[in-house]
Every structure is written in C-alpha cells, then in structure tokens.
Amino acid sequence: MKTDIAIIGGGPAGYVCAIRAAQLGLNVSVIEEAALGGTCLNVGCIPTKALFSATKLLSQTAEAEQIGLTFAPPAIDLERLATWKGEVVDTLVGGIGTLLEKNGVDVIRARGTLSSEGRVSLSTGDDLMADHIVIATGSDPVQIPPFPFDHPAIWSSDDALALLEVPKRLAIIGGGVIGLELATIYNRLGSQVVVVELLPELLSTVDLDRRTVSTLKRALSKSGIKVLTNTAAEGFEQQGDTIVLRTADGEEHAVDRILVAVGRRPKTRDLGLETCGVEMDNRGFIRVDDKLRTSAANIYAIGDAVLGPMLAHKASSDGIQVAERLAGHEPPAIDYDLIPQAIFTDPEIASVGLSESKAKISGRGLLVGRFPFAALGKALGMREPEGFFQVVADADDHRILGVQIIGAEASDLISEAAVAVQSGLTLEAIADAIHPHPTLPEGLKEAAENALGKAIHTINR
Q1: Same structural domain for residues 258 and 269?
Q2: Average pLDDT of span 233-237
Q3: What is the pLDDT of residue 379?
C-alpha cells in the first residue's frame, strides 16, 4: 500500500491533520488501533465535561431551596449516567468517522510502527509506504510505583471516567487539572474527597496568579473537598474493605479508592522510532523543530507526543500546521504561550496569555484591571457570585497581555479574551465595545475599564 501521508493516531491531532491534508488534495491514511478521537474524546475532555455538566445539576438542586424551589432528594442511577456519557462519546466518535470518510481519508484499524524510512508496519501484517509520516499517538496516564493501576483499589483517570462506582471516601493523588476536575465530579456525586498534592500549591503547572488559586481553594473547601498541599503520598495498605493511604508526614487516611492523577506521558514507546533515527528526550517526548519536524527526514510529530500544553485544541492546531506545510503552504507559527486553557472545577477557571506575576518578570509597566462576578447582575441571577475577571495589559501601549477568569462559564468567556490577546488588541478595544446587558461577558469589559481607570460599576484602582 502507498499513500502521501501516513498518520499514526486518530486523536484530535491525527484526525484533524488528516482532514485538512485531504482537503488540500493529499492522499492520507490514518492508522488507529483503538477508537477514533483519542484520549480527549474517549477518556478525557469530552466524558469529563459531560459528567461535569450532569453533576452540576446535583449542586444546583441542593441549593435551590435558597430561592424557594424545593425538590425531592435526587437519586443517582450510575449505570444510566454512564450509558448517557457513553452515548455522547459514541456520537462524536461516529461523527469523526464520517468526516474522515467524506474527506476521502483511508482509516486503517491496526497498530502502526516505524520499520524503515517511509515504511509503517501494521499489526495486520501489511506494510504502508508513505512519502511523509506523522506521529500523533497521544498520551497515557502516569503511573507511580507505590500505586499500581492493576490493583483494584487504585484508579487511573480512565477508571474514574468509567463510573464503576461512587466510593464513599476517595483520595486523589495530584492537585493538577485532571485531579481537581475529577474531585469536583465525585464530590458532587457524593464522595468524601481528599486531594493530596506534593507541591506547595494546586495547579502548579498552570500560569495562574495566587488570587485565582486562593479563590478556588476557598470554593473547594466550602464544597467539602479537603486539600493537602506539600504532602507526599507514600504508600497504602488494605485493611479489610478499607484502604489506608499513608503520607510522608506520618498521617494515615482511611479511604475506599485512590485515584492517581499526577499527569500524563507521551505514548511513544514501542513505535520503532529509534529504527528511523527519531530522537526523544528523557521523558519520551519526541524532539521537533519549530515546524514540528523530527530529527528523521519526512517524519513529523504533533499533539501530546511533543512538548507543549497537553490540550486537544493545541494538538489540533499542530495537525493543521503540519497538513498545510505538507501541502506546500507556510502557515503562521503557533505561539504556544497564547493558547487558552479552561479548567472545569467549580468555579471554572480559564486563562490566556500571561498572568500578572509572569508579566511582571519582564520589567515592563503594567495596567491590571479586575471585576468581581458578585457585581454582575447576570451572575447574581444565576446564583454564581464567586470569582472575578482579571485583565493584564502593557502600560505603554495598552496591549492586552493576559486574561484570567474564575467563575461561572469561564470556559466560554475566555474566547473573547483569546481573540484579544492573540490579535494584540488593546484595553480600549474591549472597554469601548458595547456588550449586551445583562450578560456575563460584561465582566471582561468592566475589567478592561477598571484597568483604564474609568470603571463605572466598581472602584477604580
């Protein structure tokens, strides 16, 4: 078999690369041994956000009595909830398959490994020859030695999203994005959750200001989630039906399940990369240049297989970059520092560009504006007063350098800010644009006005 481009992996990096390359007239084959859609669609962002949305109803129901609405205590049909989550995933997986088919992409259901220059060996016994090869194999949950995933009491994030059960007591090792999102979901489902984080602060790998993290920690505590920072998980032992988690400070925590959520690692093992001279770093990330080319001729790597934010939208952007280059175009380079991120905790967090603390490192003068959700009529009407908007701009030219939002629907609100930061817009561009009232996006306008010293609905700084 022969093709122009062979893409190993059908996740948000691989399938997007395939579709764009096919649109540009290239013959493309996607090699995928599991379900299309990769980690994000099957065991990552989509099922997590589906469960985040579903369990939000539980917290809203519990609070409705405050405004005069009373419901019978909700009953959770875990099997039906898991089925519904699976239906969401299946719908999207089917949609990807249809898009690939309609764009003329050949999908090969097999495992692919590099065997020689321009050759991919398939687990079916066939070989695929290609002018160019793209590695888009995604990532796996990181396992730490004292907590093996093959033990029935130890969960990976994949296990947690399978909705096997709702443990009465759940310990989560890792206070990063994955750990906190799952802590939110299981807390809403009724688990007593304790988060154990080795580092001094939560979300330490995300460029967030202390004010944002402090707001989140207060909300977690209020919801009943216990957070232990500067705490190392050392081991566990089973005592009957109880699991005892030991931490390095000598404390013991009786739980029913332990979820390990300390990050993900690139899925680049056993691909035959060494055979073709593809270099990796000591963590398994494939080394690439600014055009996503590996050290081997005509081999590219994208998505979670390379360094950078492990985000689906970053992976898709990588895929489009490579597809357009292979079709003879020269797309603008991706500025990975300007990729927005959304974290589905309660309240949500979203950010783009520089935090105030990182912007200060440059030594430039800054204008910083904030606006609280508690001063937004729409937020109060939604019973979502927690959080704030923050805008950071250059004091000289007023160009917006970064935005952080913590509060209701922050994941949707960040897109306007992303356009502003990525396009080099000024504070005036947001502040002078008329926003509809009453809405949540007004908060971004108000924060920009606050930075300019002309806020109406809050005290100017």
Answers
A1: no
A2: 96
A3: 98
Q: In 109-139, which positions are buried (b, 16+ CB within 10 angstroms) versus exposed (e)?
A: ebbbbbeeebbbbbeeeeebebebbbbbbbb
**Annotated active-site residue in 132, 253, 398, 437:** 437
- Domain hosting 215: range is 154-262
DSSP annotation string for 271-302: S-TGGGT--B-TTSPBP--TT-B-SSTTEEE-
| DSSP string for 63-120 | HGGGGT---PPP---HHHHHHHHHHHHHHHHHHHHHHHHHTTPEEE-S-EEEEETTEE
Residue linked to tokens 């917290």: 59
Q: Is the Cβ–Cβ distance between 41 and 19 less than 8 Å? A: no
Question: What whole-number distance in Å separates Cα of residue 138 and Cα of residue 7?
Answer: 12
118 and 9 both lie in a single domain: yes
Residue 328 lies in a domain: yes
Residues 59 and 80 in one domain: yes
- Judge whether 321 lies within some domain: yes
DSSP state of 367: E
Catalytic residue list contains 437: yes
Q: Which of 142, 268, 267, 245 is nearest to 194 (CA)?
A: 245
116-119: which pairs have CB atoms within 8 A and are 24 or more residues apart? Answer: 116/275, 116/276, 117/276, 117/296, 117/297, 117/298, 118/298
Over residues 345-393, the pLDDT tens digits come to: 999 999 999 999 999 998 999 999 999 999 999 999 999 999 999 999 9
Same domain, residue pair 124 and 32? yes
For 417, other C-beta atoms within 10 Å of its C-beta total 29
In the chain, the number of structural domains is 3
Report if residue 149 sits inside a domain. no
pLDDT digit string, tens, across residues 117-165: 999 999 999 999 999 999 999 999 999 999 999 999 999 999 999 999 9
Give yes or no for a contact between 259 and 160, defined as CB atoms under 8 angstroms apart: yes
- Torsion angle (degrees, nearest 10) of CA 399, 451, 214, 360: 50
Could you tell me which of 184, 218, 222, 164 has the C-alpha nearest to residue 55?
184
d(CA 457, CA 461): 12
pLDDT in tens, 321-333: 999 999 999 999 8
Q: For residue 71, what pLDDT is reported?
A: 87
Same domain, yes or no, for 137 and 8? yes
